[in-house]
Amino acid sequence: MNTKNSLLYIALITALAFHGSTLFFTLESTYDALIHLFFADHYANSWFDPWEYRWYTGFTVQSYPPLVHQSIALLSYIAGLKFGLFTVAFCGIILFITGIYRFALMLTGNYSVAGYTAILACFSTTFIETLHLFGQLPSIVGVSVLLHSLPKIYLWIKTGKRVELVKGLSLIALTVTSHHVTPIFGMVFFIFPLIGMAVMDLAREQVDSFKAIRLLHFWIAFKQAFWRIVVFGGCSLFLIIFCILPYWINSKKNPITQVAIPHGSRDNFIEVGSSGLVFFLIPWGVMLFIMPYLFYRFFSKRYVFFGLSLALLSLLGTGGTTPLPRMMLGETAFNILTLDRFTLWATILALPIFGELVYRLAEGDLKAFFTKYFSSIYHRLIGGFMAVGLLFMVVFTVSLSYFRPSQPEKINMLPIINFLHQDQHYHWRYLTLGFGDQMAWLSAQTSALTVDGNYHSARRLPELTTRAVERLENSKFRGIEGIGSLQQFLVVPEKYNLKYIFSNDKFYDPLLYFCGWQRLSRLENGIQVWEKLGVPPLSKILPKDESSKYINLMWGINPILTLILAFIISILRRWYLQINPKKKGCPDYLKFTTKYERFPGKLAYFNHVWAFMVIVCLAFGIHYYYMRNTSHVSPENIVNAYYDALDFKEFERAFSYLDPDSGEEMDMYMQKIAVTDGLLSSYAKLDSIGTTIIDEKDNKAIIKVVAKWVTPLEVIQRTYRREVVKHNAKWYIKPLKYGNYIPPNQFYSGNKNEYYNHGRRRITTQQTNHEDALKQPVIEILSAKLVQLDSVYAIVGEIQNVDNVPADVNIKVSLYNQNDQKLASYNSKYMIKHKLMPKETSVFRVDFEGIAWSGNSDTKPTVFNPDEFTSVDWLDKPQKFNIQCEGNIAITDLYKSLNLQGIQFIDSVYYGSVFNSGLQETTVPQVIVSYYNTGKELIWIDNIFITESARIHRPQTFKYKPVDLSNLQIISSDISNCFVNGLSNKTIGKILFPYRNNDNKENQLLSYKNDKSAYLKFETNSYIGNPR
Amino acid sequence: MIKWNTKIIYFACLIILIACTKANKVESSAISYVSYLDTITDIYAGKPVDLRFSYKGDSALHLIISNSYVQTIQKPLIKEDTLIFNVDDRIIKKAGLCEWQLVHNGISLESGIINILPLNQSHNNLESYLGPRSIVAGGHDFSMLVVVPTDIYDNPLINGSSIIVSEQFKNKRNKIALKTNDFLVHHNIFSTKQTGPFYIAAATTNGESKEMESSVTPAIPDNFNIYSKCNHNYADGNQLMEIYTSQIKDIYNNIISDGTIINFTIHSNKDQFFSASGTTINGKANVKFLHPSEAQYWKIKAYVDGASSSNTIKVNFKQSTLNYQLSYDTTQRILKIHSILSYMGQKLPDGNIVECRIINKQGNVTYETEVDTQGGTAFIDLSTHFFDADVYVAEIILMGIKKTIQIEIYDDVY
Lengths: 1028, 414
Known about the structure:
The complex is a heterodimer of chains A (1028) and B (414). Chain A folds into four domains: 3-30 and 64-406 and 557-598, no CATH class; 414-531; 630-733, Nuclear Transport Factor 2, Chain: A (Roll), CATH 3.10.450.50; 775-1023, no CATH class.
């Protein structure tokens, strides 16, 4: 065994044992790993065809360098995709450790320092984070190979040996095909300083010491190396372009139109502590304490270019903490790049110097310095402190995803895959909700298509590219933009052939229901399947962007070719040389070693002061965090903590904040919680909470709480007046009173109609027989009007299910100008009862939503509002309309037992309550209000959602303030262009409802005194969260 | 020299080329003599057909056959001086005109038309369609039956083929004889006045359709009656009143279909409005309303939108709570509403709303709140709100009874 490399072997074994065993518990729940798996699946199935249909509406995989994906794909032929993934991850680990070893050896020329660096690299928090938290395999492979190439490039510049150039370039090619950003920025931050160092070393050979180098010497050396630099620069530029030429062509052809998606690395790390932790504290880890040493060493003459690079990288890595990175990168680049990669490179760059310090501390001059000026105990203490710090950061980083999971729990995909493959469900697109990055793993296992996807840069639909949404499936975390994007897909699903939704997050349920979706079944893994009726299947031939055959061949062959070439040049040649040894001298960089003889005293002292300052800052930070997050220390904290606990449904914790003297018991409290349901308590996410102390005296305080909740349907803002009390120096919140209403009877019975659609299905793959398809229920459009209120155009109207079976109704309206040019088209959303019983009527309003903020000049709101409405850009004034109404037999969600009780008009507001006289709890009651003019013609529709549920046989109060319709204009009332199930609306009425009696409908109206509207009508609609 | 040589070679090539093409033409013009031996015009589908030609000369002849289904080329069988074309059986199975052409090197020598007739007998599976599968009672609405009788090769039978259509409604059967026109038979079956499924079958001499079904569903509902049922008629804000309908029938006396929605509306003399929807089972629907909490007079009516309505019934609710007491605890700043008794002198059932307004000396409402009763009492805790030390009037509304009390608020609670 080569004793010089013994530390490297120890590092490799440690890394493989540590990362290798941890990998199986972390990699699959990282952000990116499964995306790479999906890409790998693409290559495994169609190596040379870059078009991938399964995400978005199709995209090209030529938008991401393919080597890592193709390697996984190749390995997957042996034992499956995950085998490929883990094997490539193992390769990544080996490459990183050996790469950093070689880099350190080149930088310091000292085997021991390189060995220490390799060992430190095993425990480098930045590496752990990139691999185990982010799962950025291509990035890791890219940077590791780049590190391997650095010594070769150095030797080429320094000595001009062609073989080194070939070796270096083969590795550069490999880097390019693994990750495109790494070589481009690597050029600036790694290779330029490296060239600088090589030239410096050439200059050093002219004089006796680095100190003696003057500008003239450097200039002479530079001239000497100039052509080598030019040759290398030219060749690598060629490789960067040629190796992934299809990528560049594609980037040119499909420029990224995606608006910037917020990323934590662009935050102000002081304001957003969590981003600071993940993108600054964790990557730097223990190195934060030795910053002065790092910069002192890097700004020595030999390393000065690396010093500049490190300084720049560290600065850029601080994101939005200071305005400098934004100024340096420019607005566009700042918003596209994720800045965490700069910190990653900075910390990798700094590792060898950290290794050097540890070497000096363990067995070098620093040990002697400490022993001489302090004591050997102090030396051990410092060593111990660093070791403990390092270990703490390692354990903390690895376990971060355990304590703060970034992903939902692992979902068993098999039932979903079976569902998609059964009954030809793959003929439609599907959508997942609340799957996190696991949606990529689902996609990889099925051939079915989804409208969503997990690779933002490849998106093409303006509904997605104009929103800063990561994925539709986690749109709730992106507020208005997210829900807004999602809504466009849910309301007009037929545009995307979207029929099935797999929901792993009940947050979206009310949104789906009120958009007209219905629950199908719950799969074995607990995933709720939602379905939309009447969506046509995908056409057999889907659109595709063809790219040239040569480009596709290049994309399929180049990366693997670079891998084979690099393998032959770097590894086979080395083996050959091992077998046939030639006498060779040691590499040039080993000539420039630093002698670690006398540690600079001033630096040691200064670093002590620095470390002390870091400790003080940390202590202050922890104290601040503690004071802000410890519940009982102040009146505001207790209120914040209480609502936070309620938001996360940690009721036991919430109870612990209640005043112990209030007589509230845990069981009673939990009972109250158990009977509370509704939009606010079950489907809301606390968005912000503001507390103001109204008055505080001794042990009591009154606090005004303004809480804002985001629900899938609307934003709810509530103001509470909460009383807090202090006992034994701890603050507590006083509980609120709950309603006392008790229904009169103990037991209720009721009958209901039940339906089942058998449809006479046969087990056959043939098209369903004509006589086995269920007849579509007949709907009649009673009236419809094109109206304009302020600047908004809408269609309001009324429909009736004139058939004898329950119907699911979908209404699609198109608007035309005077010249019959189509201006806009949209479907009915919330303001309709989508499920109608026989002879039931429903009013409807269709708004015409455009794609929000599609214009560049539009300013995006910073505040979330799911109710946000973006009107279509009207090219002309709409004059005519066409309604296509479709009915399908409905068998679920037919609950109609929500009564309106005691509606009364007092001081321009309607007060009333809904009374649930049925036997199912209505989770979200909706009240639809329609406005009629003096001629009893429908002119406008509005709705409200009641935020608390209507429990069985209990009333739930609501308030409604009528809208001002003084600017309302009726443009058209012509319903001659209305069609139901493709048939003319006129003929339907004649046959099914020949003697329509309009008076009886009008008698149900409430008179309302207003200049425009004379009558109102209230209707209810109910969403049942847990149907029995 | 070289120039001359090139020219000679060039001319030689040209001559050879011309000679070759000429030779070909000469061969092609050696046309054979052909005569059509058969005179086949009409045949029944499926019968094998041989087209025979006598010929002399070149036998490289092809037959182009085309019908509505396909166009194809056939090679002949040669027997001595006769060419026999055995027409492909896929073509002869297809009824309709079948054109043939005998061609030699792109030149049509003979042509003709064979009229392939459908067989007289139909296939035993009759192609039949019936729709829509549900129609409304009363005779306006109809289902249409379409039968396309075909032979065993799926050729529609000739016009005038007879079809017997049978209709079975309850225990009544009706048979109609029809003749095909334009290859098919269509027949409208108008709805009866009575509801129920009817069954349709069609048959030819040796073919039958499958059983087809269409349902006559109830027509629009006729007017109906409603009734109310209360346990007592006190306005206690707690008990339920049930309103139910008579059995609703359509104008032809059929019970309307299950699930039909009936809208109930109530207008009270206190300007309050109530509404509910019930779905029918066996023609009857019922809904439940909560009793009001103050004496009221209700006018109730039910509707089927656009179709029919019920009679109007009137319900009178008597005041259940006649009085209650107010007291105010100055030190605790708690307003107590107590002795709230219901119609028998019992404590009022829990959960009735107490509205409270605190009005200052200037007559402005400074604070408004709502609580509900429990065990015949209710407490309004005014200590949670900040008031300037002063004298106020508390206005309480409970069960329709308004009461006021003067309250003094001191500074020292907070």
